[in-house]
Write a structure and sequence with these properties.
Layout: H1 2-53, E1 97-101, H2 168-172, E2 190-194, H3 195-200, H4 207-213, H5 218-231, E3 242-244, E4 251-256, E5 262-270, E6 275-282, E7 286-298, E8 302-308, E9 310-315, E10 321-325, E11 328-332, E12 340-351, E13 357-362, E14 375-381, E15 387-394, E16 398-409, E17 421-425, E18 429-433, H6 449-454, H7 470-476, H8 480-510, E19 523-527, E20 534-538, H9 542-548
Parallel strand pairs: 1-17, 2-3
Antiparallel strand pairs: 4-5, 5-6, 6-7, 7-8, 7-9, 8-11, 9-10, 10-12, 11-12, 12-13, 13-14, 14-15, 15-16, 16-17, 16-18, 19-20
Helix pairs in contact: 4-5, 7-8
């Protein structure tokens, strides 16, 4: 009797299971069809808009001649020629692999070795106690570390975010197909930080680079560089608000030379497309520089943010020069639902001196995936292509490193697919772990401890510093209506200056003269010897000007 009841229950469960699977599949197909329809409407809207702009009598005179020494080609209006351009990461397929734990009885660990021989593939060199990995998760805000004791008290809170209502659809329906930087947006969509400050926020886990300096092995050092490249995304998981677009010529300094050993400078070197140059010097043995151009597209159901440009990192003592690029950020549920952000794509980090490589894959979130959300995996390889370490973790929590002691090819489960590599690894070591958010962070734009200090007033900074931007300061103080008014004033002032430059460019062209256009104050454009790309690099003079308190060369942008 009981057996018959169980059999009936199983039959009923199987029937309902098939029913729910069909219903779920139907819902998935309907959602996909809806998303494709919205995207198609967005593209059609964009095409009609471009056709309208290209109609006779509506064209805008442009100066197509490249101005000498200028960051961009001067045009009558911001170029829309890339309106339908899609950007993809350089790496299309990250290597597939499987990791298995090594037998600890076969791969014992010595107590008197370090990781300097890790690239040799010796399992007994994987020793936590005597390695630079020992303090890999120690916080730079830990008051017990003598090198990180703050010499200045920093603020730990800002005014709570006001609760303002906003009709999102009334604004967003006119934005479909347009580039985000060309849409006038109220501060209700912003957080009280500029893009220059968000760029500086990548340094929150700078101690990973301080530890990387101590590595004797280049592959071991690569592990810390890879963890650092992932850590910069940890602050974005709750940060769906948009940072302020910097004004042309706007700067931001973060001088922590006495407290944390580094000083950072950013400058907005272009406005359309928005581009920022960044330079960081650390007295602890490393220098980082980059020029990032933000390409963003609103497609109706999501917003894609694509940072374009290479990040350079050089260690002073070894000369190891690492280069990588950022992945694509996607903000979902723009129109309906709760906003959430995801990171997806591949990062390839290359050491241009030793030719070591690390390939990291940011897996896009999927409701139907069994993988851990926000998963990041990767492999560190030497110049010969031999794998030494496996990187694993999530971009919002932590990254671990496992030493490879043996690798082999597995069996291919599907026809036409290459077999996955099986890596036998030792126990993982945590290289990076996210700091907990400050108390009341949900009411302070989910700012981290470092982010809370970024807009704090400093003495002696340049008059173009983001901290002095009035609309951003008003927003931080909760005066959003006044901030919106001030934001419009600043943007119109910038447009007026831009029109003056365009008029001067047209006159110069008519007279057959070269027009230099806008020239950044603290950065200059040079060809990078490693990549052959044209990049804005720091030319010096800022910190000397600050020492003299001579800012006479700075433009009046606020």
């Amino acid at each position: 009797m009981l057996e018959m009841a169980c059999r009936d229950f199983l039959d009923l469960a199987e029937t309902h299971s098939r029913k729910w699977q069909r219903a779920l599949q139907y819902e998935r197909e309907q959602r996909t069809r809806l998303e494709e329809t919205i995207e198609q409407l967005a593209k059609q809207h964009n095409s009609l808009e471009r056709a309208c702009r290209g109609a006779p009598g509506l064209t805008v005179n442009t100066v197509t001649r490249a101005p000498k020494g200028n960051v961009l080609t001067v045009k009558g209006e911001a170029s829309d020629e890339d309106e339908d351009t899609e950007y993809f990461d350089a790496m299309e397929d990250a290597p597939s692999f499987i990791t298995v734990a090594a037998d600890p009885t076969k791969h014992h660990r010595r107590t008197d070795s370090n990781l300097s021989g890790a690239s040799e593939g010796r399992a007994d060199d994987w020793n936590l106690e005597d390695s630079v990995f020992e303090c890999s998760t120690r916080s730079s805000f830990d008051a017990t570390g003598k090198d990180v004791v703050s010499k200045k008290s920093r603020r730990t809170q800002i005014p709570d975010k006001p609760n303002y209502s906003l009709n999102l659809w009334s604004i967003m329906k006119n934005c479909i197909g347009k580039e985000l930087s060309k849409i006038p947006m109220p501060v209700n969509f912003n957080e009280p930080l500029s893009m220059l400050q968000r760029l500086t926020e990548d340094l929150e886990y700078h101690e990973l680079l301080d530890k990387a300096v101590k590595c004797e092995s280049s592959t071991e050092q690569m592990c810390f560089v890879a963890a650092f490249s992932v850590s910069s995304y940890s602050t974005t998981v709750h940060r769906t608000a948009k940072p302020f677009n910097p004004l042309l010529g706007e700067t931001y300094e973060l001088d922590r030379l006495d407290e944390l050993g580094f000083r950072s400078l950013c400058e907005q070197v272009s406005h359309h497309p928005p581009a920022a140059a960044h330079h960081v010097y650390s007295r602890r043995g490393w220098t980082l520089w980059q020029e990032i151009t933000i390409a963003s597209k609103f497609r109706g159901k999501y917003l894609s943010i694509m940072p374009l440009g290479a990040i350079h990192l050089e260690f002073h003592s070894s000369g190891n020069h690492y280069i990588w690029r950022k992945v694509t950020s996607t903000v979902h549920n723009i129109i309906v639902g709760k906003l959430w952000i995801d990171q997806s794509g591949d990062i390839e980090i290359i050491n241009y001196k030793s030719k070591d490589k690390c390939q990291l894959k940011f897996s896009p979130y999927s409701y139907f995936s069994r993988d851990v959300p926000r998963k990041v995996t990767g492999v560190v390889m030497d110049a010969e292509g031999k794998a030494h370490y496996v990187m694993s973790g999530t971009w919002d929590e932590k990254m671990e490193c496992s030493k490879i002691v043996q690798s082999s090819l597995g069996c291919s489960s599907m026809e036409g697919k290459l077999p996955k590599t099986v890596y036998q690894t030792l126990s993982p070591r945590v290289l990076w772990k996210k700091y907990p958010l400050p108390e009341n962070a949900e009411n302070m734009y989910y700012f981290s401890s470092l982010a809370l200090t970024l807009n704090e007033m400093e003495e002696g900074m340049a008059p173009t510093d983001s901290r002095l931007r009035p609309d951003q300061r008003l927003m931080e103080n909760g005066k959003w209506d006044e901030a919106n008014t001030e934001k419009q004033r600043l943007e119109e002032k910038q447009r007026a200056v831009r029109r003056q430059r365009e008029a001067a460019a047209v006159v110069a062209l008519e007279e057959g003269k070269d027009y230099e256009g806008y020239i950044p104050l603290w950065f200059e454009r040079k060809v990078d010897p490693a990549t052959g790309e044209l990049i804005c690099v720091y030319k010096g003079g800022y910190w000397e000007a600050k020492e003299r308190q001579d800012w006479s060369m700075c433009p009046n942008i606020f």
